[in-house]
Amino acid sequence: MIPGRFTYHRPGSVSEAVKLLASLGEDARPLAGGHSLIPMMKLRLAQPEHLIDLGRITALKGIRRDGAEIVIGAMTTQAEIIGSALLGETAPILAEAAIVIADPQVRYVGTIGGNVANGDPGNDMPGLMLCLDAHYTLVGPVGTRKVAARDFYEAAFFTKLQAGEIVTELRFAVPAANHGWAYEKLKRKIGDYAVAAAAVTLAVSGGKCTSAAIALTNVAQTPLLAVDAAKALVGSSLDKSAIDAAAKAAMAISDPVADTRGPKEYRQSVLGVMVRRAIERAKSRAR
C-alpha cells in the first residue's frame, strides 16, 4: 500500500516542532523513527495531512548523567542505547531489552521516544520504564511537564500525551551499583512482538532481597507493573517458593489477547516462565 498525500515538515528545534503541531492541529503527527506510524499510513489506518519530522532536532538526542539521574533524549536510537558505555555501566538492562527489539535495520532508526510515546502494548521500552520508575518530560503549547511512566499509559495507544505535546526526554534514577537486572522476552521470529516479556530489577543484602520491581510487556492493553509479584520477593532469599509466588502474581494480573502468538492461556503460561527466568538471572547478577 502507498500512504495518502501529506506535507512534510522538518523543524530544527523543539519549539518550532511544538508550534507546528499546535498550528496544524489534529491533521499533524510527529515523526520519530516511523516504525509505528509509517506502516499505519501505508495501510491507510492513519492519514495525517502533515508529518513533523523530529530528526533534525539535536536537543532530542543523547545519553547523559545528570547528578543521580540518567537522561536519555527521545530521539536516541535503540542502536545508540546498545552502544552506550554509560548505560552499560549504570543500567545495562536497557541494552539487553533494546537488542531484542526487531532487527538491526530497525534499531539503527527506531527511537526510544517513539517506542515509549506511541502507547503500543507490544513495545518493549514502556514496561522497562515502569520497572525503572522513569519519568517522561513532555513539551507542548502550554509548557513543560513531567509524567511518571507508571501513570502515562491509559489503554492501548492511549496515553497522557495531550494535543500538540511531544516526549523530549526520559529520566530515571541511577540504579544501585550492586543491583540485579534482567529482561526476558519470547518472540516467534526476528522482528516480532513478544509473546510475553518481563523486566526485573532487584537488590540483595545479607542473602535477602531488599527491593524489587517487575514489569510485564504485551500481556495486557498497557504495560503492567507487577506490584504484588515484586512484594513476593522482598524479604525472601529468592528461593523457589518466592519466585513461584512472584510468577503466579504476575500471571494473575495479565490479560493477553488470543492472537497469532497463541491463545490467552498459553501466553499467560509463557509469561510465568519469563518472570521466573528474569528473576533467576537478576538474582545471579546482584552483588
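That was protein one. Protein two is written in the same sequence-then-structure order:
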Amino acid sequence: MSTVEPPAASRTVLAVIPARGGSKGVPGKNLAPVGGVPLVARAVDASRRARRVTGVVVSTDDPSIAEAARTAGADVVLRPAAIAGDTATSEAAVLHAMDAYEAMTGAEPGSTDVVLLVQCTSPFVTAEEIDGVVAAVTEGGADTAHTVAPFHGFIWREGAEGSGPDGSAYGVNHDKATRPRRQDRPQDLLETGTAYAMRAAGFRAAGHRFFGRTALVRTDPAKVLEIDEPADLARARALAPLLDPTAATPTRDDVDAVVLDFDGTQTDDRVLIDADGHEAVTVHRGDGLGIAALRRAGLPVLILSTETNPVVAARARKLDVPVLHGIDRKDLALKQWCEENGIAPERVLYAGNDVNDLPCFGLVGWPVAVAGAHDVVRAAARAITTAEGGRGAIREIAAWLLGPTLAR
C-alpha cells in the first residue's frame, strides 16, 4: 500500500465524532456534561484544537446533539436510521459521514486523505492525542494509528478455554505458576478507545479501522476512561477538575451576561425568622461591589430565583439589577430573557448552588457552582468558586471576568 503523502498544506484530515441519540447504559450520554461541557462538545473542542485536523463533523440522529455540536463549532451529518441502531458499527458511521461531508462541502468524492474516529465517550481526549495519531499516519508511514496506555495488570478469564478440569479461572497474559515482576514482564498496552486515524482510501477499501501497518500512540493512563455506565460518568465528573487541561475560569471575552441565583448563591442559604414571621438573610458587601463592577463594564446582570420572599426584590433594588423571582421553571424564564435581550445562552454565565439550578446549567455556556453547592451541582459545573455563597462568591466571579481589581 502506498504511503506517499500530499503536501501538508493541501492534506485533508477529517475528524468524525459518532454521537447517536440512543444509549441504554447511560441515557442521553453524549449530551451528559463533564466539567460543565457536554461530552460531544468536549470531543468537538479537542478535535478543533488539533493542529493537523482540517475539518470536524459530528454524525448523529438526534436533533439536540446536532444543536450542541454546531454550537461547539462542528459540522453535522445526519445519520440514517439504518446505521443508528444499537448494532450499528462506528465504522459504518465514519464511512457515511466521510462521504456526506465531502458532498456537503463540495469536495471531490474520495478526496479525504486521512479520516479520524474520535470518541466522545472518552471525556479527556486532548488535541495532542489527536495530532499524535494523525502524525503517525501522515509522517510516520503507518496506515492506521490509535491511542494506547501502558498496562501492567494480570488479566484473568472465567470459562472452559484454558481452565482446568474443575473449571477454575485461568490467566490470560500470565501463567499461574510463574508471576514475573512488573519490570521483567513484556509491556502490555491497553487500547484506550479515544482516537483512531486511518488512511481514508485504505479505510474505504478495508471497511474497518485496523488494516495495513498499525502504529500505537501512547497516552497518559491517568486519563483513560470510557463512559459506558453511570458509574463511569460519576468518575469522570469527579476527575474533571483534576484532569481538564484548563479547569478554567471564564474571562470577559467568554461572557455576554451574568445570571445569578439568590438563596445559597448570594446568601449563605440560612434564613432568620423573627417572632412575627419576618424573614431576613445575610449577604456579602463584596458581592455588591462585584455586581456593580459588572454593570459598569456593560455586562447585563439578572437575579433569577424561585423564592417569592420580599428580600429578593429588596436586594435587587439595592443593587439596581432586574429580578425574576417566584419562578417555577427557571430555565424557561432564562431562555425567554435571553431571547428578549438578544443574548446567546452559550454566552451566559449562570451561578447557582442547588438542584433547581441544574436546568439552567444545561442551557448556558458557563454553568458555575459556588463552593459548598450540592454535589450534583458541582459535578455539572464548568467552574467552581473557592468562596461560598453569601461569602464573596459573586465578587470572585466578577474578578474572573474583570480582573482582581475590578477595573473599569
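The first helix runs from residue 39 to 49. Keep this in mind for the problem set.
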